[in-house]
Specification:
Elements (H helix, E strand, L loop, with lengths): L1 H5 L2 H20 L2 E13 L5 E6 L3 E9 H5 L6 E6 L6 E6 L5 E3 L3 E7 L2 E17 L2 E2 L6 E9 L2 E7 H4 L5 E3 L2 E2 L7 E8 L5 E3 L3 E10 L2
Parallel strand pairs: 1-4, 8-12, 9-13
Antiparallel strand pairs: 1-3, 2-8, 3-7, 4-6, 5-8, 8-11, 10-16, 11-15, 12-14, 14-16
Length: 214
């Protein structure tokens, strides 16, 4: 038995080396590395708190995968999920690593740079905010706007306390009355205008009464 096991040891070692080489060749053939900018997402935000600001929106993630998969990657295919379960009021650093990288299958995350984000958490506040209709254009010649009404006149908006303290009004998206010679009633979406607020009612009804110029 010993003779059988040790016989032609050189040939057997060579066979093993060839087999291992073939395995590596098959496994890593077409493999490549690249770096992508991955969007940061947050989970487990403590109740009653919300994100006021963050110092970065994305992080560079180095990944490895087959070239055909990497070439077909879309920005939404890779993201980094940051856990804020231990978050507290104010500014703090929250760390993440390759285990927090979420991606499509057959892609391996190697590293992230940077590996933390500075987040400011603020108290969440809800308040009633007046809505102003945004009317653009001019009615037909010989006609004018007689009256503008909006329903509801106020909506509940939610956001960070410091953001809400500066929010006095919201306005609608533009309602064009160019060339009109009769009344118009239309549902119009509320425009947050880039503010980080959530509006409970997304649309309001705007009525514009148009009559002849006196």
């Amino acid at each position: 038995m010993k003779k059988i096991l040790l016989g032609n040891i050189g040939f057997k070692l060579l066979s093993v080396a060839i087999a291992v080489s073939l395995w590596f060749f098959v496994t890593y053939r077409g493999q490549s590395e690249t770096t992508v900018d991955a969007q940061l997402e947050f989970k487990n935000i403590p109740q009653g708190l919300e994100i006021l600001k963050q110092n970065i929106k994305k992080t560079a993630v180095s990944i490895r995968g087959h070239e055909s998969i990497l070439d077909a990657l879309k920005p939404s295919d890779i993201r980094v999920v940051v856990d804020l379960a231990n978050g507290k009021l104010g500014e703090a650093s929250y760390y993440f690593d390759i285990n927090d990288v979420k991606s499509i299958r057959n892609i391996k995350a190697l590293r992230t740079d940077p590996s933390y984000v500075r987040v400011t958490l603020d108290q969440s506040v809800i308040k009633q905010v007046p809505v102003k209709p945004y009317i653009v254009g001019q009615p037909a010649k010989g006609f004018e706007i007689k009256k503008i009404t909006i329903d509801p006149m106020t909506v509940a908006a939610e956001g960070a306390a410091s953001e809400m303290a500066r929010l006095w009004t919201l306005r609608t998206e533009p309602l064009d009355v160019t060339g009109l010679d009769s009344d118009i009633s239309q549902s119009v979406r509320i425009d947050p205008n880039g503010r980080n607020v959530r509006v409970k009612t997304s649309d309001v009804m705007v009525k514009v009464a148009i009559g002849r110029t006196e």
